[in-house]
Design a protein that fits this description.
- The complex is a heterodimer of chains A (70) and B (332).
- By secondary structure, chain A is mostly helical.
- Chain A has one domain.
- Chain A is built from four helices and no strands.
- Chain A is globular and about 40 Å long.
- With 332 residues, chain B is of the alpha/beta class.
- Chain B folds into three domains: 182 residues, Rossmann fold, CATH 3.40.50.620; 59 residues, Methyl-cpg-binding Protein 2, Chain A; 50 residues.
- Classes of the chains: A mainly alpha (70), B alpha/beta (332).
- The interface between A and B is medium-sized, with 19 and 18 residues.
């Protein structure tokens, strides 16, 4: 059973291609861009870190869209 | 006694070269003549140090007249590949046959499929461009190593783009035609001559899965798969592989832009990776390995983890076809 803070790389859930897979999924599913400098273990290496990272990006996108909408 | 920093030096990998060569030649004769019941050896010659050493070893084991070197350049091979392949065959004294594999690759769609995949991340890539796939160094900080395509326009302008998982797999699947076509031709000549196909992976490549399944990973016998890369260089010098081959940086010779194996796959310089692999096989600690290689302990930890990951990924490459268990006899 995978815990929220387990390292996906260390547990062997994903590898180098898996990281590309994960980035592609996040970009498509949440309509956000993952920049090269954001491809860090602290953003993508566990369920908890992905949740934080995507939550932050989606929130930022929503507020910037909101600002444009005003 | 517990290992100390002095336990890991490049000396740990030094062989008695004369003895190692005799042992390999004896093992080759045993495998090819007695077990496989074939009359000689076919080797794909790339002009690199591994295949050159194998040509010398086979020449020693079977006599040069029972060894055939197959030269298989294609349109994107490095300019010196063919010349160096000939140099290695001549110095080992073995006959060669030239097979330009470009038409077969073109017919299979190798180039076309690869280019289409690259264009999904780099739309300007087209006629006259050259490309390669790179994996950033593990030594370069905490970022994930991600596969990128580096392309050069006909004007010499360089562009780099991160690959998507789909594009990466498409590019690899297309370029794998190169290794598989070469192996197909090696087996053609082996069948024709009643020879065995002798593979050329060294220990690092074999252990870490740096080969294409049913491509360069396929062979009847692999006589240097137990040798670390630095040991390959040591034996190559001992048997007389010419310096121009020994001094050429290891390359994949798979992509049009010149690409080192380090760039594509290993992410750490060879001599250090050899020592790390040895240290891990021998159960040496991170601290001992760091002291012995000059790498930071944190980097050694990452290299150890990377070795384990690549080993796990290589299980698929090494696996023979899996069979279904025979059924139980029907009960009346």
């Amino acid at each position: 059973m995978l815990a929220p803070d387990d390292s996906l790389i260390e547990v062997g859930v994903i590898d180098s291609t898996g990281v590309l897979e994960l980035i592609g999924f996040i970009e498509e599913r949440y309509e956000i861009e993952v920049r090269d400098e954001e491809v860090l273990p602290e953003n993508l290496d566990s369920i908890a870190s992905i949740t934080r990272f995507v939550g932050g990006k989606v929130g930022a996108a929503a507020s910037s869209n909101g600002a444009h909408g005003d | 006694m517990a290992p100390t920093a002095t336990d890991l030096t490049p000396e740990a990998l030094r062989l008695d070269p004369a003895r190692a060569v005799d042992e390999i030649a004896e093992s080759l004769r045993e495998s090819v003549y007695k077990q496989l019941r074939r009359r000689g050896a076919v080797i794909g010659l790339s002009g690199g140090v591994d295949s050159s050493l194998v040509a010398f070893l086979c020449s020693r084991a079977f006599g040069p007249e029972r060894v055939l070197g197959v030269l298989m350049p294609e349109g994107e091979s490095a300019p010196d590949t063919l010349d160096l392949s000939r140099v290695s065959a001549e110095s080992a004294g073995v006959e060669t046959v030239l097979e330009d594999i470009t038409p077969i690759l073109a017919a299979a769609g190798c180039y076309e499929r690869r280019d289409a995949a690259i264009r999904t991340v780099l739309p300007e890539y087209g006629e006259g461009w050259k490309a390669k796939i790179v994996l950033p160094s593990l030594l370069g900080g905490d970022r994930y190593s991600l596969f990128s395509v580096v392309a050069e326009s006909p004007d010499g302008e360089r562009r780099e783009a991160r690959l998507t998982a789909t594009a990466y797999r498409e590019v690899v699947a297309a370029t794998n035609f190169k290794q598989r076509v070469r192996k197909m031709l090696e087996y053609h000549h082996a069948d024709r001559l009643d020879y065995a196909v002798v593979g050329t992976p060294n220990r690092l490549e074999y252990d870490q899965g740096f080969f294409v399944k049913n491509g360069d990973g396929s062979a009847d016998v692999k006589p240097i798969a137990h040798l670390y890369k630095t040991q390959v260089y040591q034996l190559a010098e001992h048997v007389g592989v010419p310096a121009e081959i020994r001094e050429r940086p290891p390359t994949t010779d798979t992509y049009a832009l010149e690409q080192s194996q380090e760039e594509f796959y290993f992410s750490v310089p060879f001599d250090k990776l050899d020592l790390c692999l040895y240290a891990q096989n021998e159960g040496l600690s991170v601290e001992t390995t760091a002291a012995g290689t000059g790498l930071e302990p944190g980097i050694v930890e990452r290299v150890f983890a990377d070795i384990d990951r690549k080993r796990r990924a290589a299980e698929y490459l090494h696996a023979p076809p899996l069979l279904v268990a025979p059924p139980e006899p029907a009960t009346p």
